[in-house]
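Entry 14: structure prediction run for 2-keto-myo-inositol dehydratase. Input pasted below.
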Amino acid sequence: MAVALDRIRVGSAPDSWGVWFPDDPQQVPWQRFLDEVAEAGYSWIELGPYGYLPTDPARLADEVKKRDLKVSAGTIFCGLHRGPSEWESTWEQVGRVASLTRAMDAEHLVVIPSFWRDDKTAEILEPRELTTEQWGHLAKGMERLGRQVRDTYGLDIVVHPHADTHIDTEEHVERFLDSTDSSLVNLCLDTGHYAYCGGDSVKLIETYGERIGYLHLKQVDPDILADVVAEGLPFGPAVQRGVMCEPPAGVPELGPVLTAAQKLDVDLFAIVEQDMYPCEPDKPLPIAVRTRKFLRSCGA
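Run finished. Output tokens:
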């Protein structure tokens, strides 16, 4: 029998229902997402792309509460490696998302770096590698963001390593962590993205445990990933091929990841995200039910 993972709070997100955008005819309506995520047995959700769920705090609080759900985090994207010129647009986005996140009594803001190539067309937008100066901008910018988000909204930022961004591989993640202040910036470890980029989640948790502030649970199909890498596909088309798969069919094994996280002896959210954009509207719920059952078998 699995050991109870009593420090892990499991949830899911609009992403697991094929939701990537605030409004898209290929996505399920937000009411259906909320109904089904509750039906699948999850207690926690993320806001997803700002504008997908209602942005009026009173209405959202009512919709969430009547389904016995709670919000763990909101999400923003930013390109702070470009320097101080990015600050104003980043903070404008933060203002919208963090206000709603705080109003839902959540405590985290997930920060995703901007993409270096277009998510759909594979157009190269920027060099894949940052210069030394850009690494400096990124570290200082994230520390400033962490400080001001905490001081203004009472939220902790957790930076999300992501495929096709500048914080992706083990080398880049470790460089980022080594160059930022742990009192201001920590990590949202997405097990799927980290595996997609060649990283070992258990090793990262064991090595940088004090920097793990949040988890996204996701698995990669290694056979599809090998084709994606060989063909140089961007992340969007890779998802359409099914590179992110239903656990426990892929890697990394989530049981050892959750056990390693439990050993940190801190309360951690572990939010399921199975990228499936776009997907048939009836596909997500059965997967979500099976995934929740599987995570319970791991003790979560």
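Notes: The chain has one domain: 8-297. Will compare against the previous run tomorrow.
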